[in-house]
């Protein structure tokens, strides 16, 4: 399969190599591509830093998620393929943890989505290098890593970064850059008061922060209707 260079119109087996030798033929990334890159980095994508430009690999057992990401990344994608079967995963885990009894049924097929090297990716080594939040990125992060707690009247949104590519501290600072309050409300001595997030990997937004998110990013988030609510009654 060949890919057509949008600048010179020639077809290439390995378009990444053509771009590597013809920097000015390489199309810049669209906002949609950049949003997807930002989200994948926050989600835990691996950045390959060898070579002239950085590229991204994202591993997941959720192939539908990777397909959706690949569609948005469009011509930045070089491959989306099965990296290891469930049986191979089980074998790998069994070798790593001899005391554990791992079966293929407990594992899932692992897929890898890879991008071509691109100069716009050079700014990144991991999710902590993401400095811009957009409505898409915020919406997706909530969808994948968010949960609501509290009551419908006084909800809070918890974003769990512990299994992602970004630290709670970085995400907290990013929100602050956009004027969005993080922290939580606590009860004590018959009073309700505000305390900053204490659990390192979990960024919590009080009702005020949720309202600010809605306003700043013009996104439709509704704790009372969200199916992923934990506690909201
Ligand atoms: Zn060209």
In short:
Helix content is 32%, strand content 22%.
Sequence of secondary-structure elements: EEHHEEHEHEHEEHEEEH
Q: Which structural class do the helices and strands define?
A: alpha+beta
Number of domains: 2
- Our count of helices gives 7
**Largest sheet at a glance?**
4 strands, antiparallel
Gyration radius, in Å: 21 Å
What coarse outline follows from CA principal-axis ratios? Answer: globular
Strand count = 11
Kindly list the characteristics that best describe this protein:
binds zinc ion; 7 helices; Endonuclease I-creI; 233 residues
What's the structural blueprint in terms of helices and strands?
Blueprint: E1 3-4, E2 11-12, H1 15-21, H2 31-43, E3 46-48, E4 55-60, H3 63-73, E5 77-84, H4 86-96, E6 110-115, H5 135-145, E7 146-150, E8 155-160, H6 168-177, E9 184-188, E10 191-195, E11 202-205, H7 207-217
Antiparallel strand pairs: 1-2, 3-4, 4-6, 5-6, 7-8, 8-11, 9-10
Care to describe what's here?
- The protein is of the alpha+beta class and 233 residues long.
- The chain has two domains: 28-124, Roll (Endonuclease I-creI), CATH 3.10.28; 135-217, no CATH class.
- Helices cover 32% and strands 22% of the residues.
- The protein has helices spanning 15-21, 31-43, 63-73, 86-96, 135-145, 168-177, 207-217, and strands at residues 3-4, 11-12, 46-48, 55-60, 77-84, 110-115, 146-150, 155-160, 184-188, 191-195, 202-205.
- The model has no long low-confidence stretch (mean pLDDT 89).
- The structure holds zinc ion.
- Residues 5, 7-8, 10, 18, 22, 25 line the site of zinc ion (ZN).
